[in-house]
Specification:
Number of domains: 2
Number of strands: 21
CATH superfamily of the largest domain: Metal-dependent hydrolases
Shape: globular
Structural class: alpha/beta
CATH architecture of the largest domain: Alpha-Beta Barrel
Strand content: 25-35%
Radius of gyration: 20 Å
Helix content: 25-40%
Length: about 375
């Protein structure tokens, strides 16, 4: 069935256009056409002069809808998390899994495999092969050195649902990184105390991105630029960044953007209030903290991160939207997501001038608000 989205300012991922309609056929974008040329027997959706953009993609979010997935690895929790995230305009996401026990890993893998949803892109394992000194909110006693046979068994069990893994480059050698990459895992450097040299080696060995730039990693210093300096100096490595004004100062986001350009992308790194188990997060006015007050996660949605990028960092709206859709899709080699172009998935978000979601379309299915 054909649907046409009309009367919108369209951000395609390449340009901003008006006076056109987005025509979709089932779950794919058919064309961008003149608004007066919509075929007969097409369901027309009037977008009310709002902004229509590719659905947002979050490669690191740990919970939502009242559930932290690592503490409640159930089908019910996954459904609630998915609804909460997609209602906010994010049409594709990786569920972040903090360093944990083998039992929890087994359960989250099982639940994700048994409960497919077009918005659930897979799992992002943060750890367990990370630095104890830069663990952040991760449990120290769950961190371990990498063992090839253990990794092989985990990946075999996962059957492809582990899409990303954050590791410390100084902990993982070339063979470990190659093993992950050969099994389809995008490897990220993070929760790391790597020197500049160690981080650059990791990128040379195939690490392709960096987890929450500046947070939980060695810091830039004029005698050793550390992991952030290596991310800047690398010609290919991407980096995610949390734009809530708390995890990273907005001026530092601006500097990173000027240096990394299309290699910098947005994540929410959002958690959910959870007062049970080993990973407890307390909701504050503008953040989540551990019970002792340590900053542990954001209260961002991806659309809020876009808004902050525009209003506080000075990034144009079309570029901020690319940082939340096209660039993460490029990193993950998702060649049919992150843009409004012929043949791409019909994953769309409609929002107003106040960045309030008005409609979400996932895989061609429309949800109105």
């Amino acid at each position: 069935m054909l649907k046409a989205f009309t009367n919108a300012t369209i951000y395609t991922g390449s340009e901003k256009i008006n006076g056109k309609a987005v025509l979709i056929n089932d779950n794919r974008i058919e064309a961008l056409i003149d608004s007066k040329s919509v075929p007969e027997d097409t369901t027309v959706i009037d977008c009310g002069n709002n902004c229509l953009a590719p659905g947002l993609i979050d490669l690191q979010i740990a919970g939502g809808g009242g559930y932290l997935f690592s503490s409640s690895p159930t089908a019910e929790a996954l459904r609630a998390i998915t609804k909460s995230i997609t209602d906010s305009g994010t049409t594709g996401f990786l569920i972040a899994m903090p360093t944990n026990t083998p039992e929890v890993y087994h359960e989250v893998i099982r639940i994700v495999k048994e409960n497919p949803h077009p918005a659930v892109l897979g799992l992002h394992f943060e750890g367990p092969y990370i630095s104890t000194s830069r663990r952040g909110a991760h449990m120290k006693n769950y961190i371990k050195p990498p063992e090839p046979e253990e990794i092989k068994a985990l990946l075999a069990e996962a059957g492809g649902v582990i899409k990303m893994m954050t590791v410390a480059p100084e902990v993982c050698n070339r063979d470990i990184i190659k093993l992950l990459i050969d099994n389809g895992v995008v490897v990220a450097a993070g929760h790391s105390n790597a020197t500049f040299s160690e981080a650059m080696k990791g990128y040379e060995w195939g690490i392709s991105t960096t987890t929450h730039l500046f947070n939980a990693m060695s810091q830039m210093h004029h005698r050793d630029p550390g992991l952030p300096g290596a991310a800047f100096q690398s010609e290919k490595a991407f980096a995610s960044i949390i734009v809530d004004g708390l995890h990273v100062n907005y001026n530092v986001v601006s500097i990173a953007r000027k240096l990394m350009k299309e290699r910098l992308f947005l994540i929410s790194d959002a958690v959910e209030q959870n007062l049970k188990g080993v990973y407890q997060h307390v909701r504050q006015t503008d953040r989540f903290t551990l019970p002792d007050g340590t900053l542990s996660g954001s209260l961002l949605t991806m659309l809020k991160a876009v808004k902050n990028s525009v209003e506080h960092v000075g990034i144009s709206l079309d570029e901020a939207l690319r940082m939340a859709s096209a660039y993460p899709a490029r990193l993950m080699k998702m060649h049919d997501k992150g843009r409004i172009e012929k043949g791409y998935k019909a994953d769309l978000v409609l929002f107003n001038k106040d960045y309030e979601v008005r409609m979400v379309c996932i895989d061609g299915e429309i949800k109105s608000f």
